[in-house]
Amino acid sequence: MPAQSWVALMAAVIAATVAVTIPVWTFRNTIKQERQRWIRDQRGVLYIDILTEAQAELRWVTNEMKIRPDKSFVDMRTSRHDRARLGARISVFSTADIHSVFDAFQERMAELQHVGPEQPADIRIARLREAENTFSALEEAIRTELETR
Question: In the chain, at which end, N or C, are there fewer CB atoms within 10 A of the end residue's CB?
C-alpha cells in the first residue's frame, strides 16, 4: 500500500474518531451541567421554603411567649406532613452547613416552647434573642450559599 493511502487512511480514522468522540464528550458535559443546574434550582426553592418555615415558627413562638397572645394571630407554620417533607428535602438537597444551622434553629425553637409567659420577662427576652440570632445565622448561611454557587 503506497504511503499516500496510509496517510489518507489515518486521516479518515482520526476524522471518524473525532466525529464520534467530540459529540459524546459534549453530550456528557451537557448532562453534567444540566444536573448541576437542576440541583442548584432545587436548593434555591428549598432554601426559600426553609426561611419561610423558620420565620413562621419564630413568629408563632414570639406570639406564644407574650403574656397576652394576639388572638388575631394567624399561624403560618406548615402541617406535620409538609414539615416531614421539608425535612426530607433538607436531607437530600441542602449542604451540611445549612443543615446544621437549621438544626440549631430547630433546637432553639424547641427550647423556647418550654419558656412560657409565666417565666420572667428577662428570660423570655434572652431566649427569644437567641432564637432571632440563630434565624439571622440561618439567613446569612443561605445567602452565602446562594451567592457562592
Answer: N
